[in-house]
Give the backbone structure.
Amino acid sequence: MASIYWYCLLAIIGVGVAAFTIYKKRDIKLSTFLVFFLFSTCVTWIGEFIVLGLFNSYS
């Protein structure tokens, strides 16, 4: 269960980067967050498709 620490570290870095961005650019609208969320979700899905689908990681 030691690998959970790496995921927690990634989450902390992500929250830190988002907080820094909000702090530096205070006029961010909700649509900007929605576009960022959709972009990051699509990138994640593409990465999971490559790992799980193409490389057949569950077999």
User: Anything to note?
Assistant: The chain has a mean pLDDT of 83. The helical segments are 4-24, 30-54.
